[in-house]
Structure prediction request, 551 residues.
Amino acid sequence: MNFLLPNEPGSAARRFFLSSAIWLLVGVIFGLIGAIEMVDPDLFPAHEHLTFGRMRPLHINILVFGFLMTAFFGGFLHVIPAVCRTKLISERLANFAVWFYNAIVVAALATLPFGLTQGREYAELIWGIDIAILAAVAVLIFLVFGTIARRTESLLYVSAWYIGGGLIWTFFVFAVGNVVWQAPHGSWMGIHDQILLWFYGHNVVGLVVTPQAIGLAYYIIPRATRTPIYSHSLSLIGFWMLIVMYTHTGTHHLLQAPVPQWLKVLSIVNSISLIVPVFAFLTNVWLPLKDRFSRVFRDVGAKMVFTGTIWYFIVCLQGPYHSLPSVQRVTHFTQWVIAHSHIALLGFGGFIAMGATYYILPIILKRDLYSRLLADFQYWLMLIGTLGIFLSLTFAGLIQGEAWLMGEVVYRVLPELKIYFVVRGIAGVMVVTGAVLFVINVLLTILRKTPPLPVEGSEAETEVAA
Amino acid sequence: MFVPIWLIFFGSGLIMAVTTLVWSVRSRQFDDQDRARFLPLSGLTRDELDEIPSTRRGADFVAYMLIFGAGLAAFLLCLVIVLTH
Ligand code: HEM
Ligand code: HEM
Prediction:
């Protein structure tokens, strides 16, 4: 019982972080296989389980639901009690969530390669797994809101708003987007299904990944740099604007499809307005650092989180830009979008997830990281790898877009793209190597038995309130 | 069927959002915003707060410039194609 469901503070967060590192490695290996298959499509001719059509959903689901979500959950279990100045409501229940959630990711791994899928992007998992995810998210909602209810600090810090809101959105967006009341296929009919799917698809990134990553960044950057955010009111305005704007943007994925015009217009207007909450967040964490920029680099975790915010800036300038129909004429259905996806989910979400792991793990364990050098090396591998994926796919996408506009047929453009896919593969190897180092570093940090160091915040509490 | 389900979803979302907003105003979540900024620093000792880490790292700055440069290059290239086709 004590091994399975320990009561030790921080045990669940630690386990979530370890599982996240492992799922990152598994997920990027599938991505790399997919990338090699785009250079050499007959790589595994006799194994249908390893074909591109199976690798792609496996890659995406393991990374979004395995890597990103588990790291975020680990982060919440530490950040929510910290900003609420209380203890987690139940460490045992949190440990139960660790096992339950990981069983769900294993179930994804056991079904997708065998073609057990609902065939809707980001909603591929079969009905039973969808329901299990909802149950797991409900447990996390209970843990987070139960802890918030016990808080001794009356004010809710913006991280708590984003994390609490993000979990509630995850539950509803997932249920609706997966059309869970239509068992077992989990889909609607005709174009309505696509509208629902992309309402979901965009909210997976906008109302699931984004608020969770921002919630963690809002805690880690100020704490690591000892610099409060610029304005708390501005952060709350950003939070409320995200709710108002994000929910209607999904249709910008369907600008070429026969969906109602008003919905397209609404989605484009909201996509552009999203610049406001994005800059509310960036101003808040960047501006106070203008004379203290070097403080970011002291902690490797904080550095990764900060780099995540730089990617976020690029992602969220690119997003409104390619929501414009005249730009999508060139970019839609091309590798440009895959480049955007990777700087978004690897550059922004992934760097914040890895940074949160590196920042929070030593605090929980009360000892240093196993190796700062290894972490720095991983950082550079991942950074150059992400840049490589971004640039190669962007160029490939623009070549596709221009060629198609000139009336060239799809298959005749493919040979032109090969070199870019090779570069993407090489960049992918760097990311995979970085993931190996991540697993080693996280595992050894957890397993190493060294006497506890004086870790920040371990001595008497100091009143820092103004 | 689609429209009623959508309306239920939309309506419940709206009600939850408005209820949360009303709760937050009533429980004075928007007061004392200046203290709220400092909440992530709570629990740090005075020494930890006062220490000034001085790790200036040129390489990291160059990396950020590379990211900005890559993003800018992508925008410009795309813009050229958009405007010329
Ligand atoms: C201001 C914010 C953003 C806007 C306006 C925006 C806009 C868009 C648009 C228009 C597309 C579809 C492009 C096409 O198919 O032609 C797209 C795709 C995508 N975006 Fe964003 N984006 C934003 C931020 C983000 C963020 C923060 C993330 C991740 C955390 C993200 C992740 C993705 C992904 C994964 C796709 C690919 C979806 C697919 O086709 O599979 N985006 N984005
Ligand atoms: C944390 C790391 C990563 C995350 C979160 C991630 C996420 C994603 C997402 C969301 C998509 C769907 C994109 C779309 O439809 O617009 C995707 C596609 C893909 N990713 Fe990744 N990815 C990661 C790393 C990698 C790596 C290292 C590689 C190896 C080169 C890779 C190779 C691919 C390939 C080949 C596809 C399919 C692209 C296509 O359909 O044309 N990914 N990834």
Notes: Chain A touches chain B through 75 residues (CB under 8 Å). Confidence is low (pLDDT under 50) at residues 458-466 of chain A. Chain A has one domain: 11-449. The two ends of chain A are 44 Å apart (CA to CA).
